[in-house]
Amino acid sequence: MTDIKRLVLDVLKPHHPSLVDLARRLSVSEGVSGVNISLDEVDQETESIKITVEGNNIDFDAICTIIEDSGAVVHSVDSVSAGKKLVEEVETPQDR
């Protein structure tokens, strides 16, 4: 089995914990070297966010547990990178 290097998740969370607190919780998970959380949308009760996690050996189940323990729900896995190194997407003529 190969190691997960990057996860991009679409998540719905309550207003608390804050984005900063959630990022801190995720960043100390074993195998994680960095976390980026972007706010997409806010309503009265919730926030739609995009979470990007990078590392050498990300434990998907541990990441989901941290998110769920924060009262949030993973709506979708938008991107996964696995293997020996990260492979960046390249733009092709069809993408224009």
Characterise this structure.
This protein has about 100 residues and is of the alpha+beta class. It has one domain: MTH889-like domain (Alpha-Beta Plaits, 2-Layer Sandwich). It contains two helices and four strands. Strands 2-3-1-4 form a four-stranded antiparallel beta sheet, covered by helices on one side. A hairpin with a 3-residue loop joins strand 2 (about 30-40) and strand 3 (about 45-55). The longest helix has 10 residues, at about 60-70. The model has no long low-confidence stretch (mean pLDDT about 95).
CATH topology (level 3) name = Alpha-Beta Plaits
On the 0-100 scale, what is the average pLDDT?
Answer: 95
Radius of gyration: 14 Å
Q: Ends: how far apart?
A: 35 Å
Assembly status: single chain
How would a crystallographer describe the biggest sheet?
Answer: 4 strands, antiparallel
Q: Which runs of at least 5 residues are low in confidence (pLDDT < 50)?
A: none
- Overall morphology: globular
CATH hierarchy, class: Alpha Beta
* CATH architectural label: 2-Layer Sandwich
In what order do the strands lie side by side in the largest sheet? Answer: 2-3-1-4
**Total helical segments:** 2
Strand pairing plus helix content: what structural class?
alpha+beta
Order of helices and strands: EHEEHE
Number of E-state strands: 4
The CATH homologous superfamily is named: MTH889-like domain
Strand content: 35-45%
The percent range for helix content is 10-25%
**Overall number of structural domains:** 1
